[in-house]
Structure formats: structure tokens, C-alpha cells
Amino acid sequence: MQPTRDRAALAAFAGATLLAGGNAVGIRFSNRELDPLWGASLRFGAAALLLLAIMAVLRLRFPRGKALAGTLLFGVLNFGVSFSLAYYALVYIHAGLGQTLLALVPLAALLLAVAQGQEQFRGAALVGTLVAVVGVAVVSQAPLRADVPVPVLLAALGAVLSFAESAVLVKRLPKVHPVTMNAVGMAAAAVLLFAGSFAIGDRWALPEIADTWWALAYVVVAGSVLTFVLYLTVIQHWGASRAAYVFVVIPLVAIVVSAWLDDEPLTVSLLVGTPLILIGVYVGALRGGHRPDRREATGAVGEGD
Asked: Transmembrane residues, as ranges (predicted)?
């Protein structure tokens, strides 16, 4: 039984990594025609409808009480706040850089878990943080020289913290099926994104360019529905800490895809900084020595509905 669970988790991990690697490129294409929050609203609104339809087909129950409250909070944080900041940042920075910064999520999640009393502090976490921060500083030289506003980098780092906190939150939530958690969470986030888009005066219009439609279709079906169901499946089998490996591998996929489709230059700063970030995340968050708690080890999160 255990080998079967491991194979299923590994397959879900590989699928989530490959699919998520194209997300940032899809967002870049979407942002060229659609206002960022409007594009994010369309993405998660459509994804929520698809997942709600899947819930109906699978006859999954709607969460109630604490499970509903936790699922809504997860959705607002993981999809609403995180992607609002990420969409804004990706107007100005290439997909490879954006996903490389997201490689800090596992390390940020570890430090937040320590701060919230879920895990004990380890010296490796401090070393990893310092190495990763140096990598971010090296990588960020390129956009700063191109006169990208500092708030853009702050928005990207804000998305990192939001993703990390949502991962910490998941460990405390009642058991909810991955499809249900994503369906309800994305629906809640879509409402907030539509409200935010309306408040800032976005132009609400459907795409007119074929590339935008293709990008939107990708981030809805592959980048939202499939990616996040697979990601929560990995958490279900492996726990949040091991599932965070997804964010370490994604940049490698994103850089290749962005160089191929979006003409992202493979600059020296990107090539030098990326390994530093990945090494820092590995040393601080992914190297041996971290024992998952009982809830992680048993795969309690995400089972049932």
C-alpha cells in the first residue's frame, strides 16, 4: 500500500511541477492584453466553475463549519492575495525570475512555521535563508537595472509570504477533499479579485488576441484546476514540507519555457542567482533533519471531504 501511495504522490508531484512551470509564462501573455486583476479574476472564476462541476459529478459534499471557514481562508490567502501580487509583479518581470523568487516559498514556510510554534528552529534554516537572500539579490540586479520599480519586487516577495502562510495554514485545517478545497477556495478568491478589479477601474473585456485566449485556457485548466488539485494531493500523501519541493523545481521549468516562448534572456545574474536560491532553499528547508508531525506523516490533510 505504501509503495502505491508513494508512486501516486510522485506522479502528482511531477505533474504539478511541469504544469505549474508554464503558469508564469501564461500570466505574462495574459497581462499583455488584459488588466492584471481582471485576468486573474477570469482565471480563477472559470477554474472555480470547472471544479464545482467536478464536485457535482463526483458527488463531493460542500464543507461546513470550521472546514468551510478554513477552506475560505485558504482560498483567499493562496489564490486571492498571492495571485493579486504575482499578477502585478509579472507585468514587469519575466516568468523565470518570478518563479525563481517563488522558490523561496518552502524556506519562508519553514520560518513561518517556527514563528507560529509548529516546528523547531534549525541552524540550517538560517544558513539557507542567507544563501537564498544573496541569490535573490544577484537575480534582482537585472530588473533593477532595467528601471523596474522596487514595489514590483516587494509584490513578488509578498506573494512568496502569502503562499508560504497558506501552506502553514493547510496543516491546521480539518480534512477536506482536494477538489472541494480548491473549488471553494478559488470561488472565494474570484469574488475578491472581481471586486478588486472593479474597484481599481480595470477594463472588463474578453481577449481579442488568439495568444491571450490560449494563455487563459492554459492557466485555467492546466495551471489552476490540474496543478492545485495535484499539489494538494501531494500534501495529502507527503505532507506540506515535502510537497514544498514543487516550488524548488518549478523555476527550472519556468526558465526554459520562458526562454522558449517569451524570449527571456538567460543573463549571467539569472544563471548565477538561480542556483544560489535553490541551494539556499534546499539547505534551509528540504535537507534531511526535519521530522514531519503526526498530521503530515499520516497524510491527514486533504483526505475525505
From this structure: 40-60, 67-90, 96-115, 124-144, 150-170, 182-201, 213-232, 244-261, 267-286
